[in-house]
Design brief:
Number of domains: 2
Largest sheet: 7 strands, parallel
CATH topology of the largest domain: Glutaconate Coenzyme A-transferase
Strand content: 15-25%
Number of strands: 24
Helix content: 25-40%
Radius of gyration: 22 Å
Distance between the termini: 71 Å
């Protein structure tokens, strides 16, 4: 390790933050919590400091987003994590609607400020470069644009390969805090999710390039791909689920056009086993989200299979994936980026997977989206909608035909009601299809 690094305490490091600054915070399971706590303790002397974050998981949340700090701090999120939902309701946090792949460009052209970048990095390699580890998504561009970069150096952060690295000379302040990264258990698919996963896997050909989201359904798809051959991985979020496919040789990236032979992602969340696997592994590269989520890059890979989820879908194919009515609970993430990229890929397919009913027994296939719900993916982009009752391929279908296809994969208990709504909305155009 480079012994020339002068380590400071978190309190000393955050003295570099000024009133009016915008702080970009690294995410995934690599949130630099010691630095966030330290800057929060300066609340009495700071004013109008903004925090911009993306997808993130940490049990201690966002200490700066409390009501008592309203004059000092403002929390802004690209993708609302669980721990900011109450702050959103309280008005001490807000969200910035934007395609995730476009955020780095907004830093670079000045639309979004980036004065201070806070992150966790690995220990340096023999050339003095630290890796961003498991979260390059916003960190890569944030470090490029920031006035100062403040880092927690952590021996538990894997030294991932790819361009997402920073030389120690670029770090304005470094704290040495060695603590294990947050681990995210792999969710076990339910029987319903397994049925959905099997439907999707049956549509995925050998040689496809996968973009797989997070959760039970994506893991169900992965479980159903064990007998496939020559799959590739170019995704936004990398999870434990892909490890068995990589180790078995199902994912070998041999047919990819973009970085063949490499599994590619922008952020990672999973177990220590996954983090250990990534450490100095030349078969995996972690990149800026502007690269992984660029539709013009995505489309160059063969048979891109984009697999995402939603909260509800209306009878015309409008997809809400970020809110429950007016309440924003997540963000667009990379859904749009990969939907478009996959749709332009030769042989590509876009899957939108959801259980037909909520835990409270409400249909997720609806006549109209809930009042205030956001349209994350438009009806013009909708392709395969999948529930445990089957697949509806909406590509090229007129509105009435879409309604019929979607009603067929809705829960049987709501189909009659949805048909009445379809008749009211589309009239004879729907009736003639029955």
């Amino acid at each position: 390790m480079n012994t020339d690094i002068k380590f400071v305490t978190p309190a000393e490091a955050v003295r570099l933050v000024r009133s009016g600054d915008t702080i970009v915070v690294q995410g995934s399971t690599s949130v630099p919590m010691a630095l966030l706590k330290a800057v929060t303790e300066r609340a009495a002397e700071l004013r109008d400091v903004k925090f911009i974050s993306g997808f993130a998981i940490h049990p201690e949340g966002a200490p700066y987003a409390k009501k008592e700090y309203i004059d000092s701090f403002r929390a802004l999120s690209i993708f609302v994590p669980n721990y900011l939902r109450q702050a959103m309701r309280d008005g001490t946090a807000d969200t910035i609607p934007v395609f995730l792949g476009e955020v780095p460009g907004l830093f670079r052209n000045g639309t979004l400020g980036c004065d201070v970048m806070m992150l966790q990095v690995s220990t340096p390699d023999e050339d003095g470069y630290c890796s961003f580890g498991i979260s390059a998504d916003l960190a890569y561009s944030g470090c490029e644009c920031a006035r100062v970069v403040i880092a927690q150096m952590n021996k538990y952060v894997p030294h991932t390969q790819g361009p997402a690295k920073i030389h120690v000379s670029r770090l304005a302040a470094v704290c040495r805090i060695d603590e294990p990264l947050i681990e995210v258990p792999t969710p076990m698919p339910t029987d319903v999710e397994t049925r959905i996963g099997n439907y999707i896997a049956a549509e995925i050909p050998d040689g496809a390039t996968l973009q797989i989201g997070v959760g039970g359904i994506p893991n169900a798809v992965i479980n159903a791909l064990q007998d496939h051959k020559h799959l590739g991985l170019h995704t936004e979020a990398m999870t434990d689920g892909v490890l068995p496919l990589i180790e078995k040789g199902v994912i070998d990236n041999s047919l990819k056009k973009i970085l063949p032979g490499k599994s590619v992602g922008s952020l990672v969340l999973g177990s220590q086993r996954l983090y250990d696997y990534l450490d100095y592994n030349k078969d995996v590269e972690i990149h800026d989200v502007a690269y992984t989520n660029d539709p013009q890059i995505i489309r160059q890979n063969p048979k891109v299979m984009s697999i995402n989820s939603a909260i509800e879908v209306d009878l015309t194919g409008q997809i809400c994936a970020d809110s429950i009515g007016e309440t924003v609970i997540s963000g667009v993430g990379g859904q749009h980026d990969f939907f478009y990229g996959a749709s332009q890929s030769e042989g590509g397919k876009c899957f939108l997977a959801l259980t037909s009913m909520t835990a409270k027994g409400q249909s997720k296939i609806v006549s109209h989206l809930a009042t205030g719900a956001g349209v994350v993916t438009t009806r013009f982009q909708a392709n395969y909608i999948v529930t445990e009752h089957g697949i509806a391929n909406l590509r090229g279908l007129p509105l009435a035909d879409r309604a019929k296809a979607l009603i067929a994969i809705a829960d049987p208990s709501v189909r009659e009601e949805l048909e009445r709504e379809a008749v009211r909305r589309f009239g004879i155009g729907f009736l003639r299809l029955k």
